[in-house]
Amino acid sequence: MELISIRYFLEVADKGNMTHAAETLRISQPSLSRHINLIENELGQKLFERDYHTLNLTKAGIEFKYRMENIIQQLDVTIKELSVNKEEFTGSLSVAFMDGALTDTIASAISDFQREYDKITIKYYVGSTNYIKYHSSHKLVDIIVGFLDKPKNSANIINTGEHKTAGIVMTSNDELSVLKSIDAEIVKKISIIGSQWDFDNTDSTPIIPVEKTCTFVEQSGHFLPLINRKGKYMLCIKPNDKLLSGLGLTFVPIVPKIERSICILRPEGMSETNASDAFFKYMNNIFKISA
Question: Does the reported pTM lie above 0.70?
């Protein structure tokens, strides 16, 4: 059970409304709902009962809230007492996001970090896998937010617990856009103009023979409109829903499901700076401390 999920639960419990809590936390309502569902699934009990637009705590929810408030209070006091003065942290760092890796949860965590460490300047990069690899190999980024097939336990890797699914992007009026999923047999018959999904480096072999059907072109912001103009298809992780809608595109997932975990990484060989160390430890506390 992740610490951030517990904090989100307490906010919902205080507000009694999912929408109001999401606005306060600056995350989307679906993302907040997923965190609550994760807790309920782990506990095996419902924590809320819905009454029109109000969420009321169940008996289990009241007990869980009481215990978690005590734990969070003790944790916050401990962190405050043991943490060094945040004013000592200065400098700058570069954070690179692979296309599609910036979720509401990660964005919220970074926003909180910037408020607490306001003397640290962050430069952001967003790009394809090859773009990020280039900047990493030339030691131009301190932190990478990207995708791993099977995250390994490492002091330089934080698994955020979030993931993205592979699928096909097409125009919304395409005959395939009404499908709930696409299998390998369909992929073999369509013209795929590019792929963001780096299958060459996966530990598991996907069922889709993408090397025979795709020209390996990394996804970037200008590539999605090309699909609309050419009436073609693209293999990629699921893009932002607003971006798809604005471009008149639809995403259909592949079956069997192919997923990758969203992770925060420190590239090997990079020297740890005051700023990058503070950032990585902060994110580690948010995503890895469990109750």
Answer: no
Kindly give, in sequence order, each residue whose CB lies less than 8 Å from that of residue 272, ignoring residues fewer than 6 positions away.
266
* CB-CB neighbours of 145 under 10 Å: 23
Residue 145 structural domain: 86-160+261-288
Instruction: For residue 215, give the CATH number of its domain.
Output: 3.40.190.290
What is d(CA 197, CA 234) in angstroms, rounded to the nearest whole number?
Answer: 10
**From first to last of its 291 residues, what are the pLDDT tens digits of the chain?**
788 888 899 999 998 888 888 888 888 888 888 899 999 998 998 999 887 778 889 999 999 998 898 888 888 777 766 665 555 678 888 998 887 788 888 888 888 888 888 888 898 888 777 778 777 888 888 999 988 877 776 788 898 888 888 888 888 888 899 999 988 778 777 777 655 544 443 333 333 333 333 333 333 344 455 555 555 787 777 877 777 888 788 999 988 887 888 899 888 777 778 888 889 989 988 887 433
Based on the domain organization, do 274 and 246 belong to the same domain? Answer: no
- What six digits make up the tokens of 10? 């307490």
Boundary (domain end) residue, out of 82, 113, 137: 82
Same domain, 145 and 274: yes
Residue 215 sits at φ, ψ, to 5 deg, of -95, 120
Structural domain tally of the chain?
Answer: 3
DSSP string, 35-66: HHHHHHHHHTS--EEEETTEEEE-HHHHHHHH
